[in-house]
Design brief:
There is one protein chain. By secondary structure, the chain is α/β, with parallel strands linked by helices. The protein is built from 14 helices and 22 strands. It folds into 3 domains: 171 residues, Methylthiotransferase, N-terminal domain (Rossmann fold); 232 residues, pyruvate-formate lyase- activating enzyme (Alpha-Beta Horseshoe), CATH 3.80.30.20; 56 residues, Nucleic acid-binding proteins (OB fold (Dihydrolipoamide Acetyltransferase, E2P)). Helices cover 34% and strands 22% of the residues. The chain binds S-adenosyl-L-homocysteine (SAH), iron/sulfur cluster and FE3-S4 cluster. The site of S-adenosyl-L-homocysteine has 18 residues, from strand 16.
Length: 480
Amino acid sequence: MANKCEFRELPDLSLARNRTQSFSFNYDGVTYPESLVRYLKGKTYFIHTYGCQANYRDEEVMAGMFENMGMKRASEVGLADVVVLNTCAVRENAEQKVFGMIGELKKYKITDNSRLFCVCGCMVQQEHIIKLITEKYRHIDLIFGTHNITKLPQMLDEVVRKRIRLVDVESAPKEIDENLPSKRLSSFKAFINISYGCDKFCTYCIVPYTRGKERSRLMKDILAEAQELKDLGYQEVTLLGQNVNAYGKDLKDGSTFAKLLEEVAKIGIPRVRFLTSHPWDFTQEIVDVIAKYDNIMKYIHLPVQSGSSEILRLMGRRYDAKKYLELVDMIRAKIPDVALSTDIIVGFPNETYEQFLETVELCKKVQYDSAFTFIYSPRNGTPAAKIKDNVSNKDKLLRFRELVKALEEIIIPKSNAMVGQTYKVLVEGTSEKNAEMLSGYTEKNKLVHFKGDKNLIGKIVNVKILESHTYSLIGELVNE
Ligand code: SAH
Ligand code: SF4
Ligand code: F3S
């Protein structure tokens, strides 16, 4: 029989919408109850992360906690004593994947009842999901949210000692936590959070509710983390925020993204990236800093979402197609060789075919180097989910396919033009499909496969491009 379930705090989307809460900086780090450390020592953990880079960074923090308690990572989910599913809520298919996995965990509980299963991340910031999991999936022991990760040891301790199931999901953030443990997923490229949350409230998006108010870390803390990574020999850092160019606005101490980016670049890590830029706060100053430093990659992810000004208005994106194109011109005037990528949502409620074609048109004008395309997915509690939609799923799918084809027609010739040229590639590992091949990314984020020795992993090498495929390139190592 499943253990009794205790509910500490439950998420509430209307509280999560509130932006008047204040929060403080907490430098206390994480503490570990002795009884839990004794219980977990020598056991194994497995964290399965879905969603965006913010979640991957959270995985590293949680892994740091487990390692500090004397645990080791299990090689697969079925072998782990503690499993954490770190979830995403951005689209319905993301949630379906998680439910598939939750279902699968049940069989491991039957064979070994001492295993601990936790679900955290954005999905459980929604009350209806909590209801579903606690009622239907009673083999889940602990559910916690995005705002109380640092209390994971205390929560797990309670679950173990009291033999209960526990739900503790705060609706809003109270703190920015510093001095967090961290077991990084890579020894040569790293994510650095510069801000948490999002205040943009695009009408289709759940993130402002699941991640809370936009709050920036102090510049000194970010720079200390970057310096530490540089000292450890990291080759690449990516500054992370849902909205990096709004960085510092909330601090009111003069910090801006342009200043932060410049200071990070000066530390001298070979590659500096940032993610994601909202077109709204993209200033000339930011563009100037990107242009000025060779180690800031000339690659900008600039989600447009739609090429129709009317749809953009309904999405609450705060720019129209003309403004977006002006921003692209402003960036290209200063950085002519910049690579641009984007996110696009197809089939927003009542999008007409003509409005969809405006998106295709905009893509042709911008000439993106890559693009992530999504079919609109209604998210419970967001304004767009209340709009009655007259576009059928079939039409959405047809538009989606048409857009992917149009984008390929833009992107493939650009990749073809790379053949014969030599590029700097940061080697990530062996290729997934062929262990004899190495894989890595160019400065402008193109995936390249080439033959080479494994000791090159983590290094930046020169690769001459020989062949171009739709989503990757084949090259050969060039000896300097
Ligand atoms: N903060 C970033 C990314 C947020 S989520 C930004 O604003 O660009 C990543 C992408 O998921 C978004 O850019 C958007 O294209 C897509 N997305 C968000 N909500 C969605 C929804 N309800 N349906 C389909 N795609 C969505
Ligand atoms: Fe979502 Fe918009 Fe915020 Fe991006 S900027 S996270 S799309 S609300
Ligand atoms: Fe998903 Fe949450 Fe990121 S909803 S995209 S994991 S911020």
